Amino acid sequence: MSNETNRRDFLGYTFAAVAAVGGAASLVGMKQVWDPLPSVLAGGFTTVELSGLKAGEPQTFMWRGKPIFVLKKTTDMEDNSRDLLIGDDRFTVAIGLCTHLGCIPAWKKNMWKCACHGGEFNPSAEQVFGPPPRPLDLPPFSVKGTSIVLGEEGPEYKKIAAAMMA
Amino acid sequence: MAKFEKANSVGEWLDQRLNTTALTKVLMTEYWIPKDINFLWAMGVLLAVTFKILVISGLFLMMYYKPDVNLAFDSVNYTIMQEVAYGWLFRHMHGVAASVVFLIIYIHMFTGIYYGSYKQGREMIWISGMLLFMTFSAAGFSGYMLPWGQMSYWAAMVITNLFGGVPVIGDALVVWIRGDFNVADATLTRFFMLHVFLLPIVIMGIIGLHFYTLRIPHVNNQKGEEIDYDAEAEKYLTGNKKEAKVIPFWPVFISKDFAILGIFLIFYFYLVFFHYNFAMDPVNFDPADNMVTPAHIYPEWYFLWSYEVLRGFFFDVGPVKAFDIGLAAFGFANVIFLLLPWLDRDTKILPAHKRPMFFIWFWVLMADLIVLTIWGKLPPTGTNAWIGFAAAMLFIILFLVLPIVTKIDAKKRGE
Ligand code: FES
């Protein structure tokens, strides 16, 4: 092999190395351009005051553009491992998107009914009828006095999440 | 440098610089097409024309469309539909063409399957065609979202949610694709980019590839006959046009395409002017609302069959969730057609009516796809759910038995 060829090979390999580093770096950049913006991430926390809720009448709040159901349970509603206890009150906190295909179920008398394909969830947010494969999802939250901050993973959240996994 | 002489005409001037004479020969006047093909082979030209209509009408819409969650709905339903002169025409042309293009793609695809045009040497034609189908699907979906109506919004919601089914990274992937925790402004603007720039460019590239893949194996014919193109072209060029099995694409073959194109365009503009509604879901005339879901959501007709395969599996099997089975089946439905050249074990290229078992297979597949399409639009409750399940199962089984079916045909013929 002549010297000439070696020099060209060397240039070729050097270029390949430079291009590989540049290519990898730009892939990282491109990935991050698609990440949510800081302003979007900052909007990821919502405080919900629970003391004003009426038992048996769920309210819907918006968090990260998603509906969040919060229901203060009445005394005759069943206990559930997913209940959030604050003082003597029991709450169900759930993301209000049907776990089937993502419609928003509506509260009818004593359960959430999904109009899309007839899925039903009881006051503890468990699926009791129709195609939904699992209970309504639990949003991360932490408890501050009588309110909850959605978007933070507090100890109460972790406990309930663990109980739901079991 | 080549030697340039004084040109006597514009054509000659161009020919010296761009070799236009040779180019038209290769592309048109000496691009050979078998005589033995029917109107179904005109779908390629129809598709090329429909794609052009989509691009041009899209350009006109883009001048007034605003990719912003606060402005998008009005820019379409008020500015384009009411204010812009003939804005409604361009919108309906675009909307109808987006729907019709899938009809033609399906006809094109199933013509290929019926006549075995994906086999022995034509695999690349088939693969590039399926890639086109996939990019068209992505373009169709990203465009469907832009008017920011209720159907647009919830379609985007459901489709982006599907990526949540990817193991481990699913949830993060959904957020990344949307650029927000929910389908929101970031999602709209990036899908706008995909729809008006990236996907059309990719489509144009693959169309180029698709045309190129035809050059070496050449187009199939009704009998699946192997033609010696050089010899047949020679016959044609020496004046023996009657015996030659081939004709030049231009101007001979294209005249047939034009006739069919004429009929197609009359049908298309009939839809544009009198039946544009079929491509416009009434629900989409409500502005997107992330706190209210429409009572019943379903995709456009051309995605219904795969949507039904996704939905068809509605019960858990042991520890596996129904949703995951559906997702796996959906993935299967979307890639299995790509593998067709290898699933078909018949050693000959023959039309379906010369392959008894395959003939049955083909029409059962057609019927199954129609059932899936119809049930994809019905609410999946009660017996509907079971019919959906059976049809989805049948779809999968059909592809699993295809190698056996085609083998039997070959055996029966004594091969
Ligand atoms: S989306 Fe709720 S039942 Fe299908």
UniProtKB/TrEMBL annotation, chain A:
Q: Which SUPFAM superfamilies match?
A: ISP domain
Names of required cofactors = [2Fe-2S] cluster
The protein's predominant localisation is membrane
User: So what EC number does this one have?
Assistant: 7.1.1.8
Q: Which InterPro entries match?
A: Rieske_2Fe-2S, Rieske_2Fe-2S_sf, Rieske_Fe-S_prot, Rieske_Fe-S_prot_C, TAT_signal, TAT_signal_bac_arc, Ubiq_cytC_Rdtase_Fe-S_su_TAT, Ubiquinol_cyt_c_Rdtase_Fe-S-su
Q: What does this protein do?
A: Component of the ubiquinol-cytochrome c reductase complex (complex III or cytochrome b-c1 complex), which is a respiratory chain that generates an electrochemical potential coupled to ATP synthesis.
Q: What is the name attached to this protein's record? A: Ubiquinol-cytochrome c reductase iron-sulfur subunit
UniProtKB/TrEMBL annotation, chain B:
Instruction: Please report the stretch or stretches of sequence annotated as the Cytochrome b/b6 C-terminal region profile domain.
Output: 239-415
> Organism's domain of life?
Bacteria
Please give the InterPro entries that the UniProt record associates with this protein.
Answer: Cyt_b/b6_C (IPR005798), Cyt_b/b6_C_sf (IPR036150), Cyt_b/b6_N (IPR005797), Cytb/b6-like_sf (IPR027387), Cytochrome_b_N_euk/bac (IPR048259), Di-haem_cyt_TM (IPR016174)
- Membrane-spanning intervals of the chain: 39-65, 96-118, 124-146, 153-177, 192-214, 258-278, 325-344, 356-375, 387-405
Ranges for domain Cytochrome b/b6 N-terminal region profile come to: 10-223
A single GO CC term for this protein reads: membrane
Q: Which PROSITE patterns match?
A: CYTB_CTER, CYTB_NTER
* Gene Ontology biological-process entries: respiratory electron transport chain
Extract the GO molecular function terms from the UniProt entry.
electron transfer activity; metal ion binding; oxidoreductase activity
Q: Know the name of this protein?
A: Cytochrome b
- Organism of origin is Halarcobacter mediterraneus
